[in-house]
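Researcher: Re-running this chain for the archive, since the previous output was lost when a drive failed. Same request as before.
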Amino acid sequence: MELMPIAGGVVCILGALFLFLGALGTVRMPDVYNRIQAGTKATTLGTLLFLIGTGLYNPSWIPKLIIIGLFILLTNPVSSHILSRAAHRIGARMSDKTVVDKLKESEENVDV
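Model: Regenerated structure tokens:
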């Protein structure tokens, strides 16, 4: 029995676990900003692990999976940044536990 398909399956399960935790984080976090962060970080790592596991299972797909992984690495952080800036701009409420709003502070310093 080959080791690569087994390793690929284990890495895919680990990636699926991170994807599940990202979904759980979007439900459990108190405000939109924390939800965006939890969803983005966990789903990026989960998806990349899933792609690595798929590459280990089927090595002929590795070039395509690398392109998909690079696309995810480039677009996920940018899209979450834009979503959080848009939420801040429309005045989405922050959690009561949030003590610092660096974006608001930087915008106040620019207006001076």
